[in-house]
Each structure stands twice: as C-alpha cells, then as structure tokens.
Amino acid sequence: MVADSARLSKVRPDPSDDWNVSLPGLYATLTSLLVVTYPAWPLEQRGWPVLVVGLSPLPALLLGLRRARAGTRLAWWLLLGGTVVYDVGNVVWAWLLAESGQAVADADAIVRFTMVGGGALILAASLVVVLRRGRKDIGGIIDSVIAAIGLSGVLWNIVLYPAMTTHGMSTNQQISRLLNVFLLAGTLGALVRVSLVADRRVTSVRLLGASVAFALLDNVSAAIGTEWVNIPYMAAFVAVGCAALHPSMAEMSTPGPAPVDGLGTGRLVFLGAMLAVAPVIGGCRVMLGLPIDGVLLAISSIGMIPLVMVRIARLSNAWREAEHALQRLATSDPLTGLPNRAACVGRIEAELAAGPDDLTVLFCDLDGFKPVNDRLGHAAGDALLVGVADHLRRGLRDNDLVSRFGGDEFVIVCRGPGAADAMVDRIRTLVTRALVAGGEQVRIGISVGITSAQPSDTADAVLTRADLAMYQAKRRKRIGALSLASA
C-alpha cells in the first residue's frame, strides 16, 4: 500500500495545475465563445467582440497583481500595461468600424502605434518571466532563441516575404513585420524552454507562451492577408487572462531548476543548421531566379551572431571552471582544503629543482588523535583535523606549504633562514591550546620530524628522512606535548 501511494504521488499533477472551474474555467469558456463566433459577426460590428475580449484580461491581471508575491510583480504590471495600451487601439478600431465601416488615416495611425506599444510591453513581460524563471538555464534559453529565430527565417523566406511582396507592402512595412516575427519567435522559443525544463509544471508560464504563439500567428495571418487575422489576436488575450487566473500564477517569476548545460553533437548540428538555414534558403532562391530578402539576412545576422558569441563565451567559462574544479579535486584534501599528498610531493620536487639551499620539510603526526576519534566519533575526529589545519595555515607565507599527507599526518614545506623555527613555534602554540571536537575541548600532542634538503635529494628521499625522524620523536613523546627530532 505504501509503495502504491508513493507511485501515485510521482504521477499526480501538482495541485496548482487544477482549474478552479468557477472562475478560470468560466472565463476561458465565455471568451473562447466570442473568439470562435467572431467570423459570424457583421463586418461593421466585429470591433465589439475584439474589444470585449481585449478588455477581459484586465480584472484577471488586477487579481493576479494582488495574488503575486512582493518582488515578483513586474511581469504582471507589464502585462497589465500592454493590455491597456492594446485596448486603446481596440476602442478606436471598434468605434471606427461601427461609425463608418472603415479606418481613417489618423485613427489607423493611432491603432498601429498602440499595437506596437502594447506588443513591446507584452514582450517585455515575457522576457522578465524568461530571465527570472530561467536564470539558471541561460545556455538552454539562448539555444532555444537561436532555433526559434532560425525557423522563423524559414517561415519568412518561404511564406511571408513572397506574400508581402505580392501584396505590394512597402520596405518599411516589411522590416516592421520581420522584426515583430523575429522578436515574437525568439521570445516564444525562450518561453517554451523554461516551460519544458522545470521541476514541476507551471501552467501560467505555458499559457503566457501560448499568448505569444497566438501573437506570432496573428502577425503571420496579417502578412499573408487572411480573413481570420483577428482570431489569433483575440486568442492571445484569452491566454493572458487564463494565465493571470490560474493558481500557478504566483510561481511564474520564481527561478526554475538548473539543468545540465551540455552541448552534445546533436545540439551542435542543430544549432549550426539554424545559423545556416537563412543563407542557404537565400542562395537557393537566387539560383532559382526568385527574389531574395537582403533585410532578412542582415537582421538575422545582427541578432544571431551576438547570441552565438555569448553562447561560446559561456561554454568557455564553464569549461574553464570545470578544469579548475578538477584540478582542485586532484590536488586538495576534501576535508581540510589543504593541498593533498600529490600536491605536496609535486611542490617538493619543484623546490628541489630550484635548489636545495634552506629548504626544510617537517613531517607532523598528531598524538592522541585516535582516542578522540574512538571516544567522540568520526565527526569529532574530522572537526579536530580541520581545527589543526586552520591553525597551521593561519598567517602562512606565500612560499610555504602546509599539506595533509594522509590520516592525521601533516607535512610542512618551507624555505629560508629561520623558516623552520617559525613553523615549530606555530606547532608549539597548537599543542598548548584546547581545540573543540564533538562539543568538547581536547588537547593533542604532535610528533615532528625535521630534515633539510641535500644536493642529491629526491622528493621521496626527503620525505623518508622526515618520516623516520618523526617516528624517532614519537618514541620519546609525552601526551599533550610537542616532540621534535631532526634527520
């Protein structure tokens, strides 16, 4: 029975994904009815369902602002502002259709301005969600944006550009439409990424992505001149309202998980294809004698090349950090953070290569460590080793080395007149103080073997002499005291 419950808990969706039918479900049903019945409205009255659907997210967004946690409301404010700006244009357009059945030049300019302003605010809100939700997945988001822009370039070359050329749209109109398509596609790609890479489903993020997808579809419909152009436009408002009413809206701006950011062969091939697709299609059109859109090539290059450079820079930094981490793991003791045996031997070899003069090695072994470890436990023993390490490296000169050689053994490498005496003094102060281990104060003794390097020495020879001297010191040790021997 326990196993069945555990299995069910893994597949059961999060409670925030359940719809409260009394509010979000009712909202989605009523507004969707207006969307699907839009073509049945008389032409001069079609502005009113667009206006009603455009105004419908406003109460939902105000409710969302109240429910959102402090510090996560920027995206909702931007969504509210974008919806209000859009609705100004919707009011003007609905009034013009009702009064004259057509738009006049001045009013049409107002509508276009509100469309640009509202779209910019909605895109800004989407980017806020992407940057906050995907702050731990920047690499994956960049990949998704590159892919989305590359695919939109295919759509532009094959469908949109020929249609707009046929309809006689001006260059400025084409550039404006191209920028809209690229911005919407890139934002949609980023939202899809943060929606798919998640530790749990956040439906509000997916609904916001659906809103951007509908906006992109609206731009495509407008470019090719279909009569259904306002249906995806209205659906985008419905998706925004549903996102604000859904219980998961409070998590829309919370950071998502940090997936593994690796560029395998498959992803590299895919990204390379996305970078090359626009120039390849352009070249094919030239070979077939078809018109080519030079603006597309310029804008796609301006947008894609910086993204690729940022992606490469991030990968380079990640590889460099990984190399440093591996080097630290290979040369550091994981408990104390001191250099380990391999690093110690390498340092002695380097110092001998520079010359043996004034080079001293001290081999230290803790006396009384095993009783502490046995009586208080391994955690207390670890705490004691960390305390010894902290004491030995405090105030260490840049050219000196303290390493944990293994177990309760420490090796010190120092050079210069008086350097060995200074290290002995530091060890002497260590045995006179009490260290905390397992919640108790304990004292330890230390046996130290000291040796000076000779002209014909190897690292192994120096360490062997120091080790033998340490055992000589240990034979005459006193518990809780410092015992020294030289070789």
From TrEMBL:
It comes from Actinoplanes regularis. Keywords: Membrane, Transmembrane, Transmembrane helix. CDD domains: GGDEF (cd01949). PANTHER family: BIOFILM ARCHITECTURE MAINTENANCE PROTEIN MBAA, DIGUANYLATE CYCLASE DGCP. The chain crosses the membrane at residues 21-41, 47-65, 77-98, 110-131, 138-158, 178-198, 230-247, 268-288, 294-313. Residues 357-487 form the GGDEF domain. The keyword Membrane applies. Pfam families: GGDEF. This is Diguanylate cyclase (GGDEF) domain-containing protein.
